């Protein structure tokens, strides 16, 4: 269901007297069955490329239209929208962009929602599924495979940040769930392993080229059958190169099209994330299955084609957790289950320049396998599985720089085994997963931050 409310036109005129102009039409939508748009009496639009704000109030006939004419000088910026109720309360926010000031004609869609809320997207998956592979991209997010009601599926979809719609890409060569997916720098997405219809790990892996019309193409990666795996993680180690976690850990070379074990055959079965030092990229792998006889359990670093085990704090001896790269280049491990079966509230931060770990209480609710996304403003920890196996019904929002809690936000429905991706407009897409009864869902949701121009 798509609720179109008003049209915002951004007319861009060339500085030279060429007589050329372009119009970017913006349709404003909200969650299905929401009355949010009808309650907006004033709409403010701030174009960040000019640091200029435009405003419109609802006419006597109930319409509310906003036209913005600016000179097309080649700059670009985001359009931040803010909706206000009759009493002046700020009830809706959204962002679209970047939008170029050029002589082009285009139509884009802005999704409005209450500040710091999670609401249903106007579009849904073609079928219910969980255990998808997913990653963010310049155009939005790519969602691959998944476990449906009748087994794994081969669907691949692209969620567009600019249109808030799903476009179907070329299906996977075979149905697969629990794939590891990451994006490269040249239009390729890498899809590794996963589980087949018998829930068996597979070695078949692919480079998906989004540049080939009309729906992309697949190039098989060379990987031996003995290196089959599912639920692995990929972490960037260089140009079109990724560490693939598992036993043994693998090195994916996108240029050569190969996936091979590390030279020392190290076992790095855990969560992998890239960390950034002053002069290099490294990968840290964390978890109870990262084992070394000298240093014990918990963490290892892969850098310069070598694995170095670290003296890790006992709080890193966990499974079903998440490790992510912070904007500072540090790594943060959160969520998961300890050896005694309890769910931990502690997070562990690793600073590569000092090789130091920092342990601190972080989550309000212990959760296994949460979906996690990182934007320029927020770290969003979504759903997951409780100790009793139930799907968790909220998301915890943290300031991405201070890691201080901002809010705890209810989900549209409880979710576990979902995937999340940060979109370029500051929103976070939450896709698929299982509800409290273990049934897969087709519902897509969006976290909308408290946008400010």
List keywords for this structure.
51% strand, 4-stranded mixed β-sheet, Immunoglobulin-like, single chain, 453 residues, Neuraminidase, 2 domains, 4-stranded antiparallel β-sheet, 40 strands, globular, mainly beta
The CATH superfamily of the largest domain is identified as: Kelch-type beta propeller
Strand content: over 45%
Give the proportion of residues in helices: under 10%
- Radius of gyration, in angstroms, nearest whole number: 23 Å
Low-confidence stretches: 1-19
Helix/strand-derived category reads: mainly beta
Q: Report the sheet with the most strands, covering strand number, pairing sense and barrel closure.
A: 4 strands, mixed
Q: How far from one another are the termini? A: 28 Å
Note the total helix count. Answer: 0
Task: Give the helices and strands, then pairings.
Elements: E1 7-14, E2 21-29, E3 42-47, E4 52-57, E5 66-72, E6 76-84, E7 90-100, E8 106-111, E9 117-129, E10 133-137, E11 140-144, E12 147-148, E13 151-152, E14 156-160, E15 166-168, E16 180-183, E17 188-192, E18 205-209, E19 217-221, E20 234-238, E21 241-244, E22 250-253, E23 258-261, E24 271-276, E25 281-292, E26 296-303, E27 306-309, E28 318-319, E29 322-325, E30 331-334, E31 337-338, E32 346-351, E33 356-361, E34 371-374, E35 378-382, E36 392-399, E37 405-415, E38 419-422, E39 428-431, E40 441-448
Parallel strand pairs: 1-5, 2-8
Antiparallel strand pairs: 1-2, 3-4, 3-6, 6-7, 9-40, 10-11, 11-14, 12-13, 14-15, 16-17, 17-18, 18-19, 20-21, 21-22, 22-23, 24-25, 25-26, 26-27, 28-31, 29-30, 30-32, 32-33, 34-35, 35-36, 36-37, 38-39, 39-40
